[in-house]
Write a structure and sequence with these properties.
homodimer; 186 residues; alpha/beta; five-stranded mixed sheet; 7 helices; globular
Chain lengths: 186, 186
């Protein structure tokens, strides 16, 4: 019986985020998330999804990419990886309790059912995303799962502001490229 | 910047599951999950939730308890911990791909929004649970998050059979005890 596990981002991540210490606009934040998603496809290290957590002034706190297959972990979505790493770094189980709040999560694509639930518990104040649900489903063939119909207002009720469709075309292009390259669907 | 993290169950877990190598009925499976939830409250190692994954013959594959606060990890719900540990042990990112399928997850309580999404990706075939959503909300004061209204049929469409309310009174008693002891809500 095992009682612990380690989750790791791909080895190329630190070099990739070196140049992105501060992203002071929504577009710069999503640009980094999309760049991570594209690199994850290029490096064949996982699905076509990237995410990052930023503190109040736009300082980068953590990054995440999808590493479900490589890490043998269904939960290793980009958003969950970035949020877990931010919390571990800041030693809190809700980001709103850390100095530097409010925190923003930027994701290259609209979150799936699991990630929408995760966001509700994460302690972030803003979710930014690029590609929309229909891009993810139509272009890359992924199932987004049982998302609540009113997920945006459910998050709003919990103090989380949502803004989607930022750099949508660039984000969607990565999904298209992944599908064209025969990427695994899971 | 950190790029990896370790998630660990409380140190008392291995001794607690020593006697439960095989649970060949739904009731025995939930009984173990509820026992884990009660012990987690008694040991003050996390929220009042326990879970376990079982292979086809009822063999115990992994166990989980809520360790959100202790692990500084919003995602460390009992169900997610048990599922992640099962996948790591079996070296698959979907349990249906492992020998021993179909797999069952037994949880002491109805899953929250994040865990419902997680179940859809986990590769299990059956979800069993004890306490119902209203017990969790009314007795322990936890928010279950933005769960899709038709979550059971959404899971059924993905091949996951759901059976809830097993040993409900025993499971609900643990929630009541947690609330009475002034346990943290998060």
């Amino acid at each position: 019986m095992i009682t612990s596990l380690r989750l790791k981002l791909p080895t190329w991540v630190p070099a990739e985020i070196q140049r992105a210490r501060t992203c002071d606009t929504d577009t710069k934040k999503i640009s980094l998330a999309v760049r991570l998603s594209a690199k994850n496809v290029g490096e064949k290290s996982g699905g076509p999804f990237g995410a990052a957590v930023f503190a109040r002034g736009g300082e980068l706190v953590s990054a995440g990419v999808n590493c479900v297959v490589g890490q043998h972990c269904f939960a290793a979505h980009a958003e969950v990886m970035a949020l877990m790493l931010a919390q571990r770094r800041l030693r809190v189980s809700r980001l709103c309790d850390a100095p530097g709040a409010p925190y923003v999560l930027a994701s290259s694509a609209q979150p799936c059912a699991m990630c929408v639930g995760a966001l509700a518990w994460s302690g972030i104040s803003t979710l930014l995303f690029g590609a929309r649900r229909r891009d993810v489903q139509a272009l890359a063939g992924f199932d987004e799962g049982p998302v609540a119909a009113d997920w945006e207002s459910e998050l709003a009720e919990r103090g989380i502001h949502v803004r989607g469709g930022i750099l949508r075309q660039r984000a969607a292009a990565v999904l298209r490229e992944y599908a064209a390259s025969g990427g695994i669907l899971y």
